Amino acid sequence: MFKFLKGVSAISTTELSERLSGEIELLDVRSPAEYRSGHINKAVNIPLDKINTYDGKEKQVYVICQSGMRSKKAAKLLRKKGYEATNVRGGMSHWSGKIRGGR
């Protein structure tokens, strides 16, 4: 695992793909319109501007956006709230796995 600036850990989309076979909490911080246009099946949409309202039970969360920038910001905010947040480098623009549209 690669450590990013200011203690935000990051994984590649390939590593995320491997972890999706287990039970993980994946947050998609893109806008609702971006999420509806195509997202990873297990992803829950919590737009970046609403990330402070996130109150999940799992302490380990993975965060994805389109390119990795918004998710990095979200991961920093979640870490301040006590979550073990991991950014997905490259985001959906590097994702080559299955996606689904709609909600």
Structural key phrases:
Oxidized Rhodanese, domain 1, Rhodanese-like_dom_sf, 103 residues, GlpE_sulfurtransferase, alpha/beta, 6-stranded mixed β-sheet, Rhodanese-like_dom, 6 strands
Q: Helix proportion of residues, in percent? A: 25-40%
Principal-axis shape equals globular
Oligomer: single chain
SSE sequence, one letter per element: EEHEHEEHEH
Radius of gyration: 12 Å
CATH-derived architecture: 3-Layer(aba) Sandwich
The strand count comes to 6
Main beta sheet strand tally, sense and closure: 6 strands, mixed
Poorly predicted regions are 1-5
CATH homologous superfamily grouping? Rhodanese-like domain
Integer average pLDDT? 92
* Overall SS class: alpha/beta
Percent strand? 15-25%
**Overall number of domains:** 1
CATH class: Alpha Beta
Intertermini distance: 31 Å
| CATH fold descriptor | Oxidized Rhodanese, domain 1
**Cross-sheet strand order for the largest sheet:** 1-2-6-5-3-4
* Count of alpha and pi helical runs: 4
Domain Rhodanese: 20-100
Protein name: Rhodanese domain-containing protein
Pfam family, one: Rhodanese
